[in-house]
Structures are given as structure tokens and as C-alpha cells.
Amino acid sequence: MEKLDARIRNHDREIEKMCNFHHQGFVDAITELLKVRADAEKLMGQVTDTNRRLQDAGREVTAQTEEVIRCRIQQRNMATTVEKLQLCIPGKPRKVKVSEGSFCRYYAALKTMEQLENIYIPRVSQYRFCQIMAETLPKLREEIKEISMSDLKDFLESIRKHSDKIGETAMRQAQQHRTFISAVQKQASLGCAKPLNHLILKKKKNKLDTMNVFVFPVQVLTAQDLVDFSPVYRCLHIYTVLGDRETFENYYRKQRKKQARLVLQPQSNMHETVEGYRKYFNQIVGFFVVEDHILHATQGLVTRAFTDELWNMALSKIIAVLRTHSSYCNDPDLVLELKNLIVIFADTLQGYGFSVNRLFDLLFEIRDQYNETLLKKWALVFREIFEEDNYSPIPVETEEEYKSVISRFPFHDAEIEKQPFPKKLPMSQSVPQIYIQVKEFIYASLKFSESLHRSSTEIDDMLRKSTNLLLTRTLSGCLQNLIKKPHIGLTELVQIIINTTHLEQACKYLEDFITNITNVSPETVHTTRLYGLSTFKDARHAAEGEIYTKLNQKIDEFIQLADYEWNIGESDGRASGYLMDLINFLRSTFQVFTHLPGKVAQTACMSACKHLATSLMQMLLDTELKQISMGAIQQFNLDVIQCELFASSEPVPGFQGDTLQLAFIDLRQLLDLFMVWDWSTYLADYGQPTSKYLRVNPSTALALLEKMKDTSKKNNIFSQFRKNDRDKQKLIETVVKQLRSLVNGMSQHS
């Protein structure tokens, strides 16, 4: 008992702990319930008010509906009374009445014949006229079957003609429904509580549309208004009564399959206009609206399995047709209209219970094609912008012009803003135009993403991917082609580099622009980034490379003007004219480079000096040049001195020390060696890191010395050496031999 009491006390403590633990939650729950009760009472008041207003709005419709019901009942009673009265009129024999009834009321005639055959004729079967009547009844039944079948064929022809009208009506209703829902959603998003006065919500159940349809207050034709379905009803009843319903069902389904194949055959020029697509869709919708009506109005004539089979067959054909014809279309506006038609077409048939997922999958294929047509269109736009650009900074005379430019392009520069008017913006006119056109492309791409039943994240991803294609393929391709055009000079290339720099800086604003449209945060994990930075960097690098190439080409053009007298006895003490013109050209060119990033200008300057030094060295070592006099060496030395003076004048700021002069160090050491004739020092210090002529290659020195040696045979400086100083001639021979041994040693070592 003591243990039991102890256990009871333990359980009591646990129960007390549990109650204490859940007590606050219980109190919070009660508090929340009290709050909810007030909200529930408020909601109940709103529901009651809404119900009252709905009842008030529908009171007139209810009254009219009841009036229509009363009129229908009266009409039916009158028809029944007339029919019964006609049966009571005495006169013609029963056979004549049956014949008359078979023409207008086949079903009633069959019932009458059945009564004659089963009730009346057996009573008077002994009379001969009854036997004749009994023999005639089967023939009358066959005639009724033939007449009803003829009516059915007329019915099939009628719905074939009216399919496009029925489809047009159904698609218009679906479009109005979409418009109404969009307006309601827009009004709800604006927080507007007033009802839409320009829209009327009409809930109507009819033979055309089995779902609730919101329509505008206009007269809408239904399937029964356009087509009389009574022939198919009569024919079905007649064949059912005659016990041949299966034959009728098979015939009807076979004929409808044939009609479906005809409806699905498009016109060859359907892709040329949107009306061709619209007519094609209207016929298909009309066909399946009729089938849906027959499905719900008759029992078993067509089944859901049959309509689904028809729809699957039609859907495969529709997708193949649209995929083929849309591929012919190069107009993005037409592709966009086609997309809108497909969406309405899909929504219409989805309302009748048909699966349309494959159509929306097709829309994604068409979206890629739409983007391709947009890219082609914008390629022409970009090309036109580049052709019309003057590739000079934008001049702004007044503050209004300045505000006009920055309203079209996000440009901010504190130094330029402080400058007085008139002033110039660094980029050319094409930059704001390109920026505006990229935004226009984003808008155009967004139009296709509407109504696709996709989330904001998916739409954001679509926009970013299409914009990336525009930047990395279309705009990048246009920039690359522009840079490669022969008429684009150095000034234009400099401006292109400046333009791409500003466009690269504007990419973040394009990111924000897309974010504002889709309301998808750029920090989302799966958000695609714009590749504009790499696009403009690649274009800028291509332009920089083209600048280096064109500078070198221009230097080559000046070098080709060089006209040295290689056998001259003595230099006139002045630098060559072509070289001075080349240096003046380089000075003026590098002044334009002041707007470029520092490294680009420095690289261009260094590349030009290296190319100039290489060209001069190649000129000296040209294999076609056989003799060089000392006077020519002196003249060449004067030209190289001018190049070194140009390099030391710092044509582009930012070089450290004599970095730029090092481009000519090979030439300088080679010329110093020949001018001073310091072969003993060269040969003694060769291979030493501290050698005065470290950059002079033995093969280069040998080649130039051979050119000077060969002139001894043609009365040049060496002829005097041989006459006046044969010891020095022997020294030259010795130097040549030693240089050759150095060259041979280098080749063996390598």
C-alpha cells in the first residue's frame, strides 16, 4: 500500500506538471477563439450582406425564369391538347393517318404501327384489308428508317457547316470569361470594393456550355440556336424502337471520325495570317462542342471514352500542324497572336473537360521560336542603331537635354554633373538607344509569358534567359561584326570601348528592371543572372585587340613609305620624313586614348612601340637587302633616336621609368655596337649578365656585319679599309669568324 501510495503521488505530480505545461497553451487557444469569434461575427455580417445583394440582383432573373417556365408549361399543354383533339377527329382510315404521321412524326407513327400490329389488327385479322395493312407495315418502317437517316445526313452536313460559328461563339465566351476574371483580379489587387459596373455576371446553363460562363450583356448564340439537333434525337429514337440502335451508333461515330479528320486538315497558307489559325481553331472547337452536347443530351450515342479517343487523335494532329506551320512564321507579332489563340483554344476545351496539358507544352516550344524571331528583329534594330551612330560623345546644351538623356539611360557622374553647360557625356548616342531597346525586348518577351498559368519565378527565369540570349548572342554578335568592319577606325573603336563600359555598368539596372516586373527577389536561389557583363567585356576586349591590330597596320603603312639609301656615304643629320610623320600620327592618336581605361591605352602604346621596333629590325635584317653602308647605319640610328625620344616623352601616362624605351633596347644595343665598333667588348662580355650588349644576338650581328662586309666589293667603306688599314680588315674577318662560331655553338647547344 505504501508503494501504491507513492506511485499515486508520482502520477499526481506528473499530471500536475502536464497541466501546468499545457495551461498557457490552453489559455492562448481560448484567447484566440475569442478573437476569432469577433472576426466570425464580422464575416457573418459580410456574408449576409453579400447574400442579400446577390438575392436582390438575381430577383429579376428569377422572376423571368419562372415566367419562361410557365410559358413552356402552357406551350406543352397546348401541344398535348391539340394532339389529343386530332386523335378524336373522325374521318380517314387508320392507314392514311399512319402514312401522314410517318412524314412529320416518325416516332409517333412507329408507336401507332406497333399498336395496330399488336392490338387492333389481330382483332380483325380475318379481313383481307388487315392482311394488306400487316404486309405494308414493315415497308413503312424501312421508309421511316431511310427518311430519318436522310435527316441525320442533313444534320451532319449542317453541323459541318456551322462548326466554325459554334467554335467562334464558344471561344468568344471563354475569352470574355478570361477578361472578366482578369478585371476582377485587378480590381481586387487594387483593393477596390465597388462592383464592376461595365461587366455583368451572368450565370447561364445551356446546351452549348455545361460550365458556368461569365458573359457580357450581349446576345450569345448557343449550339441549339445554330444547329437543330432534333434529327439526331428522332433518328436515335427510331433506331432504338426498331431495335437497331447499335447500327445507328456505329454509323454516327464513323461519320464523325471522318468529319474530324476533315476538320483537322489545315489550309496550306494558314501560317500567313492570324485569321487562318483562328478559323482552324474555331472549326475544331465547334466540332468538340457539338460532341460534348451530344454526349450530355443523349444516353450512349457517344461515350466519354469515344470523345477522349477523338480528342487524343485530334490533339496529336493539332500539335503536329501547329509545330509545322508556326516554324514558317518570322513575324513575332503573328507568333504572339498565335499564342493568344492557342491559350483561348486550350481554355475553351479545358472548360469542356478535355485535357490540354500538351498544348501548353507546345507553347513552350513556340516560346523558343518566338524568342528567336524577336532576336532576329532586334538584331536588325541593333544593326541600324550602330549604323546611324556618329561614335562621338553626346553633346548636351541645356539641363533639359541632360535630363532627357539620363531619363533614358542610367548615367551618373559627379564630375560631369558639376561641369557647366554646354558639356559632353562620354558615351555616344547608341548607348541610351541600346538600353531602351533591351528594355523593349524584355517587354516583348514578357507578352508571351502572360496567360501561360506559370508562377512568377518561372516567368522571371524565362525573361532572364531570353535577355541573356539577346545580350550574349544578338547584341554580342552585332558588336563583334561592327568592330570587324573596315570603315571603323581607331576613333570609333575608342568610342565603342567607352560605350561598352557604360553598358556593362547599366546591367545591374536591367536586373532591377526585371525584378520590378516579376516581383521575384534576385536573392532567390534559382534566379538566373544576366550575362551582360561578360558580353560587354568580350566586346571590349575584341575592340582593344582591333585597336592594336589597326595601330600596327597603320605603322606598317608608314614603314612601307621608308626609302633609305642603303649605300649612302654619310648621313645628312636629319631623321627620315616618314618616321617623323609616323611619330606625329602616334602622338595625335594617343591623345584620343585619354578617355580609355589606363591599362588599355598603355597596352596600345607599348604594342605600337614594340611593333615599330620589330618592323625596323626586320627592315635591317631583310634578306633582300644585300649591302648596308656606315652612312645608312648612321641615318637609321637617327631614326631610332627619334623613336626613343617619343617613348621618353610619355605619350600615354602611367609608365614607370624607361619602361616604354625598353621596346627599342634591342635596336639601340645593336646600333651602338656598330656605331662604336666595340667588337672586343661584345665578344669578351658575351654571355655575361652585365654585358653592355646583352640584347644583341650573335646571328643578328653576323647578318648585319655580312651586309656591311659585302659592300667591300663595290667601292664602299671596306674598300678604304683594305687599302689603308689591312689590319682592321683582318680584325673584321676575325670578328666574323668568331660570330659564326658563336652562332654554331648556339645551334648545337639548342
UniProtKB/TrEMBL annotation:
Residues 359-707 form the Exocyst complex subunit EXOC6/Sec15 C-terminal domain. Residues 3-171 form the Exocyst complex component EXOC6/Sec15 N-terminal domain. GO terms for cellular component: exocyst; plasma membrane. Transmembrane segments: none annotated. Gene3D superfamilies: Dsl1p vesicle tethering complex, Tip20p subunit, domain D (1.20.58.670), Exocyst complex subunit Sec15 C-terminal domain, N-terminal subdomain (1.10.357.30). Keywords: Exocytosis, Transport. GO terms for biological process: Golgi to plasma membrane transport; intracellular protein transport; vesicle tethering involved in exocytosis. The keyword Hydrolase does not apply. The keyword Ion transport does not apply. Belongs to the SEC15 family. Component of the exocyst complex involved in the docking of exocytic vesicles with fusion sites on the plasma membrane. This is Exocyst complex component. It comes from Astyanax mexicanus.
